[in-house]
Specification:
alpha/beta, Argininosuccinate synthetase, chain A, domain 2, five-stranded antiparallel sheet, Rossmann fold, 14 strands, single chain, five-stranded parallel sheet
């Protein structure tokens, strides 16, 4: 009996070549799995491409709500940023794909899984840590680490020899390396390999140039319950539709572009350009909501653990016990993060203009600069002297 391999299949040229290579080199029956997590047009072609390449078992699944509800929203509860700015759009998608790929492998009786990540990137780590966390006995095939196709010309030659359709645009200069899902679109390669060069405006697919965005601001109100957004302008939406709506609003107003040089887990630096319009809006709104409803030490503790949490996700440790422990801490903090945040979105800017909550800890009577009866300013003297005590002792010793 032929061995079975479940391949994470995008329907694009690279994974089509991988599919045929697995069939040829391993004499295997390849089962394809395509996860629809909001990446767009590729999904429509994936089933047809797999059929053309002789695949009998084809899985194409809409996981958009699960992706946002069970992965994006929990990550955002921690206000997660990798190296201070990256919203982890690629990183957070990989554990879901890996988990479902293992489930399919069990369903079809496959002992192998495969992916299209290269041997230089982070995704190979994320996929494979996800595989092993869900099935320690699974066997992994990573073609980019095994085959002798070392150049783009060799890849195209292999495609031609095996009657794999190569779109005309793929025959010219190598396109940007892209990854897309409901949270973001990423770009690497071409002129982006030189961190001094500005990308062409034509590269961006999800956001308008802020200079070309409308001259009139857009106002929106986002409602939160237990730390997660539930509605926009009083319209209750599913997780995926809510993020899609924020993407549309942000993209039209030039919000969400990021150009960074990041530190990959495998040890090298790489430059990436990202579009994450809905995510940028959500991050600003969530922090505004927490500023009203979380006490100071809880806010500060979350800010302290966030870089560790972000690094775990970036490096592929979504299923690790330490990430799950941190998630429990974060989720405990969100039980009173309820209320409304009003934003003004204008030419690449997200401006908080209002926030309110029935669970607010903000006291206008205490914060006022006018006369009040709830705060005795004389109490501050003793507070300061106690905090100054160790400083005085240190100074006296010198």
């Amino acid at each position: 009996m032929k061995k079975k391999i479940v391949l994470a299949f995008s329907g694009g040229l690279d994974t089509s070549i991988i599919l045929k290579w697995l069939q040829n080199e391993y004499d295997a029956e390849v089962v394809t799995f395509t996860a629809d997590i909001g990446q767009g047009v590729e999904i429509k072609d994936a089933k047809e491409k797999a059929e053309q390449l002789g695949v009998k078992q084809i899985f194409v699944e809409d996981l958009q709500d699960e992706f946002v509800r069970d992965y994006v929203f929990p990550m955002f509860r921690a206000n997660t940023l990798y190296e201070g700015c990256y919203l982890l759009g690629t990183s957070i998608a990989r554990p879901l794909i890996a988990k479902r790929q293992i489930e399919i492998a069990h369903e079809v009786g496959a002992e192998f899984v495969s992916h299209g990540a290269t041997g230089k990137g982070n995704d190979q780590v994320r996929f494979e840590l996800g595989y092993y966390a869900n099935d320690p006995k699974i066997k992994v095939i990573a073609p980019w680490r095994e085959w002798d196709l070392k150049s783009r010309a060799q890849l195209l030659d292999y495609a031609m020899q095996n009657q794999i359709n190569v779109p005309k645009d793929k025959l010219n200069e190598a396109p940007y390396s892209m990854d897309a899902n409901l949270l973001h679109t990423s770009y690497e390669g071409k002129i982006l390999e030189d961190p001094w060069l500005e990308p062409d405006e034509s590269m961006f697919l999800r956001t308008k140039n802020p200079e070309d965005a409308p001259d009139k601001p857009t106002f929106i109100t986002i409602s939160f319950q237990n730390g997660d957004p539930t509605s926009i302008n009083d319209e209750k939406l599913s997780p995926s539709k809510l993020l899609s709506k924020l993407n549309q609003i942000g993209g039209e107003n030039g919000v969400g572009r990021l150009d960074i040089v990041e530190n990959r887990y495998v040890g090298m630096k790489s430059r990436g350009v990202y579009e994450t319009p809905g995510g940028e809006i959500l991050l600003v709104a969530r922090r505004a909501m927490e500023s009203l409803t979380l006490d100071g030490e809880s806010c500060h503790l979350k800010d302290e653990i966030m870089p560790k949490y972000a690094k775990l996700i970036y490096n592929g440790f979504w299923f690790s016990p330490e990430r799950i422990m941190l998630q429990s801490l974060v989720d405990q903090s969100q039980k009173k993060v309820n209320g409304l945040v009003k934003l003004k979105i204008y030419k690449g800017n997200i401006i908080v203009v209002g926030r309110k909550s029935e669970d607010s800890l903000y006291s206008q009577s205490m914060a006022t600069f006018e006369e009040d009866t709830v705060y005795n300013q004389e109490d501050a003297e003793g507070f300061i002297k106690l905090n100054a005590l160790r400083l005085k002792i240190l100074k006296n010793r010198t």
